[in-house]
Structure formats: C-alpha cells, structure tokens
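Notes to self after the call with IL:
- keep both proteins in one doc
- input above output, always
- annotate only the second one for now

Protein 1:
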Amino acid sequence: MSFTVTATQKAALLGSHEMSTRVVCLRGGTSLGDIPVRAISVFATYSTRGGRDAWLMVDRNVIDQGLLNPLSDQVIIYTGIKGIVEVPIFTGRVDTINSTEDGSVEVPLLSRGAEALRAQFEVPWPVQVPLLSTSEITRILQDVDPTWSVDTLRANANVIARNLVWEDDPGQALDQLARGASLIWQPNRTGGFEVFTNPYLIGPSLGSTVQIIFRDGAGGTTVTVDDAESREGIYNSVTVVSEKYGNQAPVRVTVRDVGASSPTRWGGLFGKQNLVFKSQTPIDVAQCQALAVRVLNQSLALQRTWTITTPHMPLLDPGDVFGLWYENEVTTQVVEAVEYSTNAQDPTVITSRELRQVSAEILTA
C-alpha cells in the first residue's frame, strides 16, 4: 500500500460509507481545478510494464476550455470519504484525447511507468559498478525525471548489479535488474515509483504485514476461486542459471516441488515440467537458490486464482499482502491486480494468488 492512512480512516473505508471521487488537472505543478467527468476507470497490475492504467470520459466543453492538454497537463484521481479521507489512486499525464459522436471525449492517461518506458536511452546505458540493483533502478528512473520519488524501503538490497549494458530499452534494463534480485518495480499512485521485494521470495510468514482481512459470507465480500484449467505456466521445477564472466562457469541451481501431498509433486500425477530461468544479473549460489524458490512459489500459485469483489476499497496495490477468510479457511494472499471503484455502483475487484511455502528440494550443479 503506497499511501498511508490512519487507523480511524482505514476503519471508515472498511466499514459502510458513502464514497467520493475527484479528478484534478495540473499544469506545470499548478492546479487548474477539479474536472467534471462522466466516467473514470483505474486499473493496476504488476504483470505489465506500465503498471497502472486509467482513462476519463468528459464533456467536449472541458476540452474546449483548454483543459486536459496532452502536451502539458497531468491528472490526479482521488477517491475516499468526503470529510474523512481522500486517497489518490492515479497520478500521470494526459496521453490522448479521442472525440466521440455523442459529444463526449475519451481521455486515456499515461502512467509514470509507461512514461519512463518511452524515454529510451540516447546512448548505451552501463551499470555503475559496483551498484546495488535497487540503486541502479533508481538511477535509471531518475535519469528520466530527477523529481520522481523512488521508494526502496521494502526492497531486498543485497544484490549487486555488474557488467551489464543496455542499448536503448529502459524497460528491459529495469526488468532484468528487478528479476535477478526478486524485486518488483512499479509506478505508485502518487506520481513516483516503488521498488520492493517480491512477496513470493519472503513466503507466508508475514503476519505483521497483513493489514486488511476480507471475509466472505453475509456482511462480507464476494469471493470466487478459479482452479487452473491448463498446465501452461505451472512449473514444478525451476532451474536458475546465473551467467558469469571471463573463465568462470555459470551458477546453476534447480528447485523442485517435492511435497508429499502436493498435487504438482515432481514425478507425481502432474509429471515433470521444468522452467529454465536465466538471470542477466550475476548472483551467487545462495541468491540463485532464493530466486529459484521465489519463481517456483509464484508459478505454483497459478493453480488457483482468487477474485475478491468488495465495496469501495481503494487502499490495496499490486504486490500488497492481505488476509482472506473464505469458507472457514484463512489464507495469505498477494494482490495481482486491482480494478478500483470510482462510483458507488461499481465494486472494487481484486485478483490474487495464495502466498504459501512449497516443500522444495534444492539441487546445485
């Protein structure tokens, strides 16, 4: 959760309340005031590079007044409870204005993540050696705009990026640095970025980090669980290969699901399905093992996907961990995606996977 609220404000949002929504247009850091809108959509996920998408629908007269100019304007979308709490759920640029036949205008917005990807390297970008992956990710993002905040407080900071050069694609650089260190980088809701350790690396012993618990049933939320209908993407063995330089042999580590009762046990009814994961960031044996376990845990979590539909709940972001009480079973879940509620008729829809620890066998080549 990239925006902090008080215990009283969180309790109000978790209880029955009347929601509010507000859209502000800015130009050069100066507020041009609230924008009247017909419709709003905000969606966040860590499975795409842009990380956060939003669009508005406004009347033509808003554009005719010179507002929402793609060359200069930015937008902040807020939601909350009037007089109690207001939570930003999107900050980014106006990308396009598309007129429709009924006189309204669709306005797709550009997230900070998508904006960073458009700023390709003008010359090849080498890692400043030795530099932690978190620091190099920060350096790349702030080269685009030094005013962008990059929060790394929840990030694993012990992986050093070495001997890497990227030709022109900042997205490739950011993805490779993050994957090798089991990090997630994504734009936050306030116009900056977060870099944090992938929850599947840490495992389910996160009691202190579970800030929100959803319950199904009367007075609770609607929960649906989809079992996997395909083997694709589910691997019960993961081999991580970390390339070395000079005459050094690569590090190769394999981790297998060997749980006696696991439906995906290596060599059991599921069979054998291995993923070879090559890390462009040179890492040692212990870091390879941790990375392999993380990829295995995240892969096996695809066996079931949860969809939680709840009234207005703007506090969760992709990568956040929450508790779910479903059919008298309490599980720890990781947010995969959030479709935020922007009006009283539409709920918040959260897609998640279970955070659990797999019984794993580790083999080192």
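Protein 2 (the one to annotate):
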Amino acid sequence: MAGYMRKLNGYVYDGANKAYAALANGIFAEIGANGVVAITAAGDMELRVEEKTTLWGLPAVVLNVVIAGDKEQYFVENDLGDIENDLTWDGANYTCKVGDYVRMHRPLIGEQLIMTVSAETYAALTVGDTVKPAVGGSVAKKS
C-alpha cells in the first residue's frame, strides 16, 4: 500500500510514537499499548470517494474527509528518508520498520488523501461512495 495527504487544513503530524509492527505508507493506524499498529477495529471516520485513479501503477482512490470521527485513527505518511542516495527505495512499497518513529496525521474534515487499495476494493467503489477505515489499515465501503 502507499499513499499521502493531498490537502491539509493544518500540517500537524504525530511523530513521537514508534512502530510496533511494520507500517506501509498510506494506511490507517492507531496507537496501541506497545506502539503504532494498523487499525484493529473499523473507524468512525467517513471519507467520500472523490476520484478513482492509480498511484505508482497501483489502483488508488482519492478521498475527502467528511467526518473526522471520535476514534484516534491516523493516516501513516512517513518521511521518505534519503531517496537520492538509496537506490533500493520504492515509493509504492515504502514501509516504516518496527521500532522506527512513525510520521502520521489524524485527518480532519475537509482534508484529502490518496491511497492505494486492493483490486477488489477498487472495483467495489464508485465516485461519491462513502468509506470508513477498515481493520488492517485500508478502507471499506460504508454499509
């Protein structure tokens, strides 16, 4: 998975917590007892599908935040490190390692993000659909 924030109301990032598990860029995460993990329960945040597209050749959706929700769920957007000197860097598969600090942002109403999704999720969504963060860090259509 991959993704990043496209429009922000404020550049406030949490970078004080370490990853308890490997975390790909562009997933929803939460702060657990031992550190940051992909979300373990569906979120109450709601996002509207603005566009279906691709990101680094992978199926992706552009999402507008319409309800921020009460659960503290964050969108992982790690600093990409030393891209110029790291010949192994792969933007489509950038992952924060266990024990590394996680750069993440709690999405606010009016903000926009882009994230890759599975082919199945991509096929199930249409522009205008509402989605919520899903277990594992991706999104699922609101039922």
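Annotation: The first helix runs from residue 119 to 124. The longest strand covers residues 46-55.
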